[in-house]
């Protein structure tokens, strides 16, 4: 066999060696990229059961409509990753404008077009998805958002600028704006954001602000997020990042990969929130993801640091009360920046009445605040999540609800969110409690205030 192989090699014309060697390098790069993407997602972020490589989309047994390099699912969020090994040519690196556009079209535009077509296909009926290891891909929670990642295996200078300038993308109700990045950025994201919820939360905001963030390198934006929690108000036109912001991320990656002394995690969202009560809720969401809990997790991770800490401190107080008297205690949080809110019940009760009471409380509070969405959470006193639900219907005036909520005061909202269980005016003992629980003041917050 070895002799036949050598005979075959020697028979290849010399002029073909260059192209064969280039082809071998490309095949090796593609294989290495697939392996790296799969290993990164499986071992560090989403787990092997949620990651599929070489997914073929079948309309029938013999008809293939498309192929996805790497598909990741987490609850009702889907990531379609298209990996390419296209490099910048020498002419492009010299600044040839025409060649730059041609390289971009072959390496990135083609990748996005393929990813978008597949993102549309997976939402169709009577479509079968089969991975390279023969696993069948199903979406038990449905498909709400699809994120398209166009990943390059080589360093591509000024990639974000070129994507803003040249990329032509389509608009769809649930296929999000494409995210163009290289393998090095993907590696850093998976290394630092090893939690599925943290990873998806950053990805969701990054594509939402795609037209308003300007940076020479994606690592700069990632570093900013790790330190300050990436967030833009609606009235903010854009944000420009300087390269020195990435210093902390560079240091952390060097510490992790080369074993030198230093901070392996930049001081910020990964170091300040994990030990708090709200941080415990986020961990429970990751362990039991669903379409509702994932939406709740996105909302919690968007809170400012001040609001996050304040809400956690308030939650600690009602948890302590629930442990002491084994009764229900309530925390209401209004989120002005996100046009929503949260009601948290902490108790030992798992009865249907407790669930109905919480639902009614959320319905009344949502109506009073005149918002379209509201979350309800039921916690055990050990800070484990029992269940949560999401009210998502357009606000409309109602005489019945107006009468029921007339004694409920509006939440005093600050930046991000502000927990509020206090009253601004004198409330009668037999009036409905202003916290929105639906019971009399003397049996609710009046008792709590005396206990304190």
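^ Assign residues to that structure.
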């Amino acid at each position: 066999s070895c002799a036949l192989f050598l005979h075959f090699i020697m028979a290849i014309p010399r002029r073909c060696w260059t192209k064969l060697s280039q082809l071998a390098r490309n095949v090796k790069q593609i294989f290495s990229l697939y392996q790296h993407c799969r290993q990164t997602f499986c071992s560090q972020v989403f787990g092997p059961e949620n990651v599929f490589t070489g997914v073929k989309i079948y309309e029938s047994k013999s008809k293939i409509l498309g192929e996805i390099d790497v598909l990741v699912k987490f609850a009702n969020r889907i990531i379609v990753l298209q990996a390419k090994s296209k490099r910048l040519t020498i002419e492009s690196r010299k600044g040839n404008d025409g060649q730059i556009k041609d390289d971009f079209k072959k390496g990135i535009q083609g990748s996005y077009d393929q990813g978008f077509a597949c993102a549309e296909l997976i939402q169709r009926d009577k479509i079968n998805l089969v991975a390279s290891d023969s696993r069948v891909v199903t979406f038990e929670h449905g498909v709400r958002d699809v994120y398209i990642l166009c990943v390059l295996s080589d360093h591509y200078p000024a990639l974000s600028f070129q994507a803003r300038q040249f990329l032509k993308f389509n608009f769809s109700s649930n296929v999000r704006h494409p995210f163009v990045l290289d393998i090095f950025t993907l590696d850093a994201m998976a290394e630092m954001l090893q939690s599925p919820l943290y990873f998806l939360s950053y990805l969701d905001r990054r594509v939402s602000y795609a037209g308003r963030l300007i940076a020479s390198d994606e690592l700069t934006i990632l570093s900013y997020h790790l330190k300050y929690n990436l967030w833009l108000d609606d009235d903010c036109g854009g944000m420009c990042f300087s390269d020195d912001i990435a210093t902390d991320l560079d240091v952390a990656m060097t510490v992790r990969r080369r074993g030198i002394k230093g901070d392996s995690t930049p001081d910020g969202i990964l170091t300040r929130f994990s030990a708090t009560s709200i941080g415990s809720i986020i961990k429970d969401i990751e362990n039991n993801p669903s379409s509702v809990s994932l939406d709740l997790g996105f909302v919690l991770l968007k809170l400012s640091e001040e609001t996050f800490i304040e809400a956690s401190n308030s939650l600690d107080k009602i948890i302590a009360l629930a442990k002491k008297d084994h009764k229900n205690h309530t925390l209401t949080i209004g989120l002005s920046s996100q046009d929503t809110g949260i009601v948290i019940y902490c108790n030992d009760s798992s009865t249907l009445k407790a669930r109905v009471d919480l639902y009614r409380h959320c319905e009344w509070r949502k109506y009073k605040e005149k918002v379209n969405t509201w979350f309800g959470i039921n916690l055990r006193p050990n800070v484990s999540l029992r269940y949560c639900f999401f009210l998502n219907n357009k606000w409309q005036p109602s005489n019945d609800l107006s009468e029921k909520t007339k004694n409920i005061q509006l939440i005093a909202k600050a930046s991000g969110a502000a927990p509020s269980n206090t009253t601004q005016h004198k409330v009668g003992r037999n009036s409905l409690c202003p916290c929105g629980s639906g019971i009399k003041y003397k049996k609710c917050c009046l008792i709590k205030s005396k206990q304190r």
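The longest strand covers residues 64-74.
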